[in-house]
TrEMBL record, chain A:
Gene3D superfamilies: YVTN repeat-like/Quinoprotein amine dehydrogenase. It is found in: Nucleus, Nucleolus. InterPro entries: Sof1 (IPR007287), WD40/YVTN_repeat-like_dom_sf (IPR015943), WD40_repeat_CS (IPR019775), WD40_repeat_dom_sf (IPR036322), WD40_rpt (IPR001680), WD_repeat_DCAF13/WDSOF1 (IPR051733). This is DDB1- and CUL4-associated factor 13. It comes from Vombatus ursinus (Common wombat). One of its GO terms (molecular function) is nuclear estrogen receptor binding. Belongs to the WD repeat DCAF13/WDSOF1 family. Residues 354-440 form the Sof1-like protein domain.
TrEMBL record, chain B:
Belongs to the UTP14 family. The lineage of its organism: Eukaryota, Metazoa, Chordata, Craniata, Vertebrata. It comes from Vombatus ursinus. Residues 332-352, 366-554, 754-793 are annotated as: Disordered. GO terms for cellular component: small-subunit processome. PANTHER family: U3 SMALL NUCLEOLAR RNA-ASSOCIATED PROTEIN 14 (PTHR14150), U3 SMALL NUCLEOLAR RNA-ASSOCIATED PROTEIN 14 HOMOLOG A (PTHR14150:SF12). Keywords: Nucleus, Phosphoprotein. This is UTP14A small subunit processome component. Residues 459-469, 778-793 have a biased composition (Basic residues). Residues 417-427, 489-507, 543-554 have a biased composition (Basic and acidic residues). GO terms for biological process: rRNA processing. The keyword Repeat does not apply.
Length: 445, 793
């Protein structure tokens, strides 16, 4: 005889501990879930709203400088250490975890124009208005020892910027010309010049370490090759480029922060047209720094805000500002891709989260899963009007807001004029110039 | 240049000629008397020549050399060559070309051929070229990054830092060497370890282990290894053999093999019985248990999918039938009660067992192929009658002679039971004979079984008595083997098992009748058109006029519109032969309207020769005469209205709070209670507009949430909708899929420095994508690498 018995395995319904989640048996048959899209949409809407609710990016302000913070440098080996140079010649070293200054030294008379650390993180270099290049130990002086630089190089002209090679004991300064120095020597091993105007910034390529980029006050960006000791190419833009930054994951990509409120991302192999023109700032862009993942960069502007741009987007995904933050002169993205530091005119260094609504600290796996899910939902429904509206929504200071509006009007007027001109002239006589090409004056070989 | 050289030489020649001519002109003035005749002749010739030279373009003068005279008049110097440039070569050239000056001349020519050295490039120009070359070189170098960058941009997930720090698994000795016991607990543990001579610095082997390692000599180890090898080889051979044998498909071989194995088992069992009776008993018990399990399970019975399919096939396929029987015999074997021949009690039990089950239950119907398992099920009316007649035969087969006495008594008893049962059944059958045909026997059968069981219980007392008697008789039959001789009992048991199942089982006859029914049904279900055609075929031959009306009448309720149309076409096609129309009528009623129109047109084309006045326009008019556009529209509007009105929701569930089942109706009260009445719909916007349908599907509230423009990367609406349709959450996805779907694009490790990408991440194969175009062009680019860093002054 067939005897049917109910038999249930307790493993299927009993929790191991009472902290476990209850096992929920599910039937994934889509016929049973007719409302999956509306439900997910609601979740996405909630997620995007929560993201805005939790978007509190400002972490702390590091105060101590007695003048505007002119330059900053990351420590190559320690995430918590940051160096900053002020307009009064003072250099401070900060500990980010403690949020305090751990060392102060009077490096120069006048501005500290540039600061950089060597690739191993044992010393750092500063250049100042007093025509000197100084090398300092990273660790403070021993007890009874005086605060003195390891080396001092006296130059003939003012140095306006400095950058260290990523692998060798070589650094580059800029001023009247680009000089490449060996750490051990007092004279440059190579000087490269093209044109007469002063060069405001020089940067080593972090991947192809022999290539440098510089920008000068005669509106140009010049690339150099250290091996061949020659400049490579020069591109002249509409306005002066303040600084540039190389992408740490894509060897040939760099972004230039320009005075005309825009940032230009170039492929160094084709300089006649930028890959992307990033425009959202309403005043000159003073500094730019790439995230270590190479997917985004942060820019500091004279309009008292910093913005984060994805490299493939024209517009920024985030804008940070506070009431007290003045013109932001320097900005850095920390090496763990988590934080952004900005030094501004009003003597403060501010620490921001790179992802405004990110929860700091250790996440449980369930939290992580929920965050990932929310992220995915936001991505999935990003084209829906409500969701994109909420995700885009930002409060801006009145000045920036009104300026954006004004500039939009101006831009529209310009466009309208151009369109009218094209409309009322012989077809083909006025060529259509794409936005990318508009800002490039010339490429000099 | 080369082209110029001969030209110049000819010029030279010309100038020489001119000189000669000058000399000639001087000649007449220096006349000598002794050569007057000659002079005259020469003069004459000269005259002729000059005359000849006057005309024509090729005014060439003869180069003739005469004697030189000493008197050269200054007046006779001609100005002929003044316009021409005097060349150096002319001056140098000797009057008579001599070989001594040839080399000098050649050198001079060479000098003349050489161009002037160009000015050196300006510094700027030079630098520009250098820069260009260097730029091209570096940008070509950069190309090697292209694949890497592309890969990273496209990557579904990037994990930073790119180089994961590898955990070095240092040997434990090193780790422990650096580590020291500090806390009291640790120290205690270490003390313990020291005392027990446990290794601290080299914890891989304890002294005992080391000693044991040393204990085995090399030869011994070798021997062991050889042994092991041999054993392994043997095992593999044996395995290979078994595999080979298993693959042999010959049934005969397999049968023989099986038999042999069975014999072997038996023999072993016998031996075991002799040697160790307790073990044998245990073995027996084991077998018994297996049998019980088999009985409990439904394995090897005809309830499986395979068995059912075979049951259907059995009718047509001899193989399938055999397979069925084989399976049943297997079941029999497995469920057969084992009997230890020595054990008298077991024997009795067995007998009791066999007696317990009435033969009626185990009735096997004999067919040509022996007992057909499928026949036993059918305890319908037709088989009931034959039960009593057949039973003795079955018993004859099943019972051995020794049991005949007991068997007779049994028979009498059982026959009684059987008769009673058959009587009862007869009445039942009369009641529900229709049901029998439908094969809804299952519940009834269980009832029957219950009856049987009750009867059996009453009988058991009798049988027990009988068994006792038998024991007294002392006739104990000894079965030589547990498997072979108890064929009848096996049969009985197997049959009883089969009977007990409440499921539907088909007999061969049933299947046959079913097949017949299906065929007849199929015939009924055939398309009416086709069927009618079959029926009409002979009729048509008889009478065409008559034959057209009856099918139409049949069709009328189904397709009125089409018949109208076809009727019309018929009217239009007056002169056509009737049978063809009928033929087409038969299929055209299935066509949709659009096709019909075409069809009609075709038909008219066919009939053009017959009927030329009928214009196309008319035909179309006629064709659409039946279409009432207005009515259609109204119908459409009505449907739209109906669709837009909200409907009541009936939430009543049958069987909740009351009896349910087929044929039972949900009570009106319940239905009323669970009916959610829909609210009255708002008046339609097109209520007062009879000719307009205004769709009210658009939900204004939802519009704000809907995407109204196709987003950029998508090229079609469907693509976008597909992406939205696909759910991501755990509610609709398995955990694994959920994890995969929600994997973030960029993963970073907190507290880790992300270094820039390294040179070694470039695959060596990916470098130098294109040929270096530039290096072919310029000679300056030859060694750009060799240049060193310039030292500043």
């Amino acid at each position: 005889m067939k005897v049917k018995m109910l038999s249930r395995n307790p493993d299927h319904y009993v929790r191991e501990t009472k902290l476990d989640l209850q096992r929920v048996p599910r039937n994934y048959d889509p016929a049973l879930h007719p409302f999956e899209v509306p439900r997910e949409y609601t979740r996405a809407l909630n997620a995007v709203k929560l993201e805005r609710v939790f978007a509190k990016p400002f972490l702390t302000s590091l105060d101590g400088h007695r003048d505007g913070v002119n330059c900053m440098a990351k420590h190559p080996k320690s995430l918590s250490t940051v160096l900053s140079g002020a307009c009064d010649g003072e250099v401070r070293i900060w500990n980010l975890t403690k949020r305090e200054c751990i060392r102060t030294l009077q490096a120069h008379e006048g501005f500290v124009r540039g600061i950089c650390t060597d690739f191993c993180g044992t010393s750092f270099f500063t250049v100042g208005d007093d025509k000197t290049v100084k090398q300092w130990k990273m660790d403070g002086p021993e007890y009874g020892e005086e605060e003195e630089p390891l080396h001092t190089i006296l130059g003939k002209t003012v140095y306006t910027g400095i950058d260290h090679h990523w692998k060798k004991d070589i650094f580059a300064t800029c001023g009247q010309q680009v000089d490449i120095w060996d750490e051990q020597r007092t004279s440059p091993i190579c000087s490269m010049t093209w044109g007469l105007d002063s060069i405001s910034s020089v940067k080593f390529n972090p991947i192809e370490t022999n290539i440098l980029g510089s920008c000068a006050s005669d509106r140009n960006i010049v690339l150099y090759d250290m091996r061949q000791a020659t400049p490579l190419k020069k591109v002249i833009l509409d306005m002066r480029t303040n600084t540039l930054c190389w992408n740490p994951m894509e060897a040939f990509i760099f972004t230039a922060a320009n005075e005309d409120y825009n940032l230009y991302t170039f492929d160094m192999r084709s300089l006649d047209e930028p890959v992307k023109v990033h425009m959202d700032h309403v005043s000159a862009v003073l500094d730019v720094d790439y995230s270590p993942t190479g997917k985004e960069f942060v820019s500091a502007s004279f309009d008292k805000s910093i913005r984060i741009f994805p490299i493939d987007r024209i517009h920024s995904r985030e804008v940070y500002h506070t009431k007290r933050m003045q013109h932001v002169i320097s900005v850095k993205w920390t090496s763990d891709n988590k934080y952004i530091l900005c030094g501004s005119d009003e003597m403060n260094i501010r620490l921001w989260k790179a992802n405004a609504s990110e929860k700091l600290g250790v996440l449980t796996s369930r939290e992580k899963a929920a965050l990932n899910y929310n992220q995915k939902l936001k991505e999935k429904f990003k084209y829906h009007p409500q969701i994109s509206r909420i995700a885009r929504h930002r409060h801006l200071p009145k000045t920036i807001y009104s300026q954006i509006k004004e500039q939009r009007i101006m831009k529209e007027a310009r466009q309208r004029k151009e369109m009218n001109r094209i409309k009322h002239s012989k077809p083909g006589s006025i060529p259509f110039v794409p936005e990318k090409k508009k800002h490039i004056v010339a490429v000099v070989k | 240049m080369k082209g110029k050289v001969p030209e110049k030489s000819s010029l030279l020649a010309l100038s020489q000629q001119e000189e000669v001519v000058d000399l000639l002109k001087d000649y007449p003035l220096s006349a000598s008397e002794d050569e007057e005749d000659n002079d005259g002749e020469r003069k004459h010739r000269k005259l002729l020549e000059t005359i000849g030279c006057l005309d024509g373009k090729n005014r060439q003068r003869l180069a003739e050399r005469s004697e030189a005279s000493l008197q050269v008049s200054e007046f006779s110097v001609s100005t002929e060559g003044t316009g021409e440039k005097l060349e150096l070569a002319e001056l140098l050239a000797p009057v008579k070309p001599s070989s001594s000056l040839g080399t000098v001349k050649n050198q001079l020519k060479k000098v003349r051929k050489k161009k002037t050295v160009e000015l050196p490039l300006s510094k700027e120009e030079n630098e520009r070229i250098h820069r260009e070359a260097a730029y091209n070189k570096t940008s070509q170098d950069m190309d090697k990054w292209d694949p890497v960058v592309l890969k990273n941009r496209r990557a579904a997930q990037l994990v930073f830092p790119l180089e994961q720090e590898q955990v070095l698994d240092a040997p434990i000795e090193e780790v422990l060497g650096a580590w020291k016991a500090r806390t009291p607990l640790e120290q205690e543990v270490f003390n313990l370890l020291h005392k027990n001579k446990q290794p601290l610095t080299d914890p891989l082997l304890t002294p005992v282990e080391k000693a044991s390692l040393k204990a085995m000599s090399l030869e011994e180890a070798k021997q062991r290894r050889a042994e092991l090898q041999k054993a392994r080889a043997l095992q593999s051979y044996y395995e290979a053999k078994a595999r080979r044998e298993k693959k042999i498909k010959s049934k005969k071989f397999q049968k023989v093999l099986k038999k042999r194995k069975a014999k072997e088992v038996l023999r072993q069992f016998e031996e075991l019985r002799k040697v160790n009776p307790t073990a044998a008993l245990e073995e027996l018990e084991k077998m018994e248990k297996a049998r019980m399990e088999e009985r409990m399970s439904l394995k090897h019975q005809n309830s499986g999918k395979w068995a059912k399919s075979k049951a259907i096939m059995a009718k047509y396929d001899l193989e399938a039938r055999k397979a069925m029987q084989q399976q049943l015999t297997k079941n029999r074997e497995l469920t057969q009660k084992l009997q230890a021949p020595s054990d008298s009690e077991h024997d009795e039990d067995a007998e009791e067992d066999s007696a317990l089950i009435p033969d009626v239950v185990n009735e096997a119907q004999m067919s040509i192929n022996g007992p057909n398992p499928w026949m036993q099920k059918n305890r319908g009316v037709n088989t009931q009658a034959s039960h009593i007649q057949k039973k003795p035969v079955a018993r004859e087969e099943s019972e051995p002679e020794e049991e005949e006495k007991a068997g007779a008594e049994d028979d009498a008893l059982l026959q009684e039971v059987e008769e009673r049962r058959s009587l009862r059944k007869g009445s039942e059958v009369n009641q529900g004979s229709q049901k029998q045909g439908h094969r809804t026997k299952a519940p009834r059968r269980t009832e029957e079984d219950e009856e049987v069981l009750a009867e059996l219980r009453t009988l058991s007392k009798h049988i027990n008595k009988k068994a006792n008697k038998m024991r007294q008789d002392g006739e104990q039959h000894v079965s030589p083997a547990p498997a072979a001789p108890k064929e009848p009992s096996i049969q009985r048991e197997e049959q009883s098992l089969l009977d007990e199942r409440p499921e539907r089982v088909q007999t061969m006859e049933d299947i046959e009748t079913l097949g017949m029914e299906e065929v007849s049904q199929e015939q009924k279900q055939l398309r009416p058109g086709v069927k009618r055609r079959w029926q009409q075929q002979p009729q048509r031959q008889h009478n065409l006029a008559e034959q057209r009306s009856p099918p139409k009448m049949e069709q009328e309720p189904m397709i009125d519109l089409h018949t109208i149309i076809t009727g019309k076409t018929h009217k239009a096609n007056f002169g056509l032969s009737v049978p063809t129309i009928v033929d087409e009528e038969l299929w055209c009623w299935r066509l949709p309207m659009a096709h019909l129109c075409v069809f009609i047109r075709l038909r008219t084309e066919d009939s053009e020769d017959c009927d030329k006045e009928v214009t196309q326009k008319q035909i179309i008019k006629e064709a659409f005469a039946g279409d009432d556009v207005i009515a259609d529209f109204q119908k459409e509007k009505r449907e739209a209205e109906k669709a837009s009105t909200p409907k009541d929701i009936d939430l009543s569930l049958p069987g909740w709070g009351q009896w349910g089942g087929p044929g039972l109706v949900i009570s009106a009260r319940k239905r009323r209670r669970f009916l959610i009445k829909a609210p009255k719909a708002a008046p339609r916007k097109d209520k007062h507009l009879p000719n307009v349908v205004i769709s009210e599907k658009r939900n204004i509230q939802a519009v704000a949430h809907q995407v109204n423009v196709l987003p950029f990367p998508f090229t079609h609406q469907n693509q976008f909708e597909e992406t939205i349709k696909m759910p991501v959450g755990t509610t609709w996805n398995t955990p694994r899929a959920f994890q995969k779907l929600t994997a973030p694009r960029v993963v970073t490790k907190p507290g880790h420095i992300i270094e820039p990408i390294k040179e070694k991440d470039v695959e060596p194969s990916s470098s130098h994508l294109g040929p270096p175009t530039l290096q072919r062009k310029g000679q300056q680019h030859a060694h750009p690498r060799r240049r060193r860093l310039k030292k500043a002054p």
